[in-house]
Fold:
Amino acid sequence: ARAPRKGALAFVEEGTYQRKAEMARLRQKYGGSRGASRNSARWGADLLEMQMGAAAGEDGGAEAAAAKLAPLEFGTEEPPAVEWWDLPLLNDGAVAYSGGRANLNVEAAVGQYVEHPVPLDAADVEIVMPPQPLRLTKKEQRKMRTQRRFAREKERQEMVQQGLLEPPKPKVKISNLMRVLGEQAVADPTQIEKEVRTQMEERVAEHEDRNLARKLTPEERREKKIRKLFADPTGAEPDLMASVYRIDRMNNNQTQFKVDINASENRLTGACIKAPDFCLVIVEGVPKSIRRYSKLMLRRIDWNATLDDDRGRGGKGGAGAMEEDDEDEEPAPNTCRLVWEGTIKKAAFKRFRVEQFRLQAAARKFLTDLHVPHYFEAAVGAVDAENEAD
Structure:
């Protein structure tokens, strides 16, 4: 017979592996070692071959012989009435779980390892917010302060009347000398006047001492000023915010100095990026500093007036440095736009600096390296949106 072609499919006749398994069972049953059980194993194999040969002789084929062999039966055991790990939870003598708590040992079933979920409020229950503190106006705050001072003075007077406090000495002055002292002032006016002036000087000295005791030290004054400029009025940790401004041109050194020095004084980090098409100012800091810087950029600096001054002076880098043929041409208005403002997770800059680039791609790469390329995209997109609207 020709050998099968390499790569062709070789089909296994039905019953081949079943016959091999049956032969293995017979060898295992009658002895599978090569020693003393050799005759038993040989007898089992011969017996199986004789059965298969007889079946093949009767029907004339291996398939018929395999069909006549008894099929293997693989049965499964019935599940037990109760698993072994549930036996400790049943009462003594119980061998099955009948349902309910009739034969269940509850004390053994519940232990320290049972988890009790934390009850949660239903989603449809309306959450009642606590009352917010009432914010008073300046006039109402003064009125409340006056009432508290009046109540404190009234309480002191009542304690003096009950004898718990020593009554204060009469506040004698030169103007009420005769009315307070009366006959004493007439008996020896020179001595009484000297005593009254001494008391007046003591009162002034005490007043100055109290003021000096309440006076803040230079370090405390510095901390109070910083707290007033940068801290949150509620005492909470202020959020970190960022603002992005787009300026058409920044050719004046004086304007650039204002942008730089105000960012430093307000403790803002960021950058002033001078690109060929426009300038981009990015600042990061607390909300109070951002608000003050926004007023500087959008209100205090007159960008067009700065441009006119530069043109009149003809200074270096100003609008007056244009070609002589274009001196009569009116330049386009210079504007500053707030492109984006919002809360950020962390600052991308360590300090405020001024960077100048000759290519737009270089400016974009500078911000990409700091993981904030969206600032540049927002500035470009804001101008495109305005152009589409026009």
In short: The first strand starts at residue 241 and ends at 247. The CA atoms of residues 81 and 286 lie 71 Å apart. The beta strands are 241-247, 269-274, 279-285, 336-343, 352-356. The radius of gyration is 50 Å.
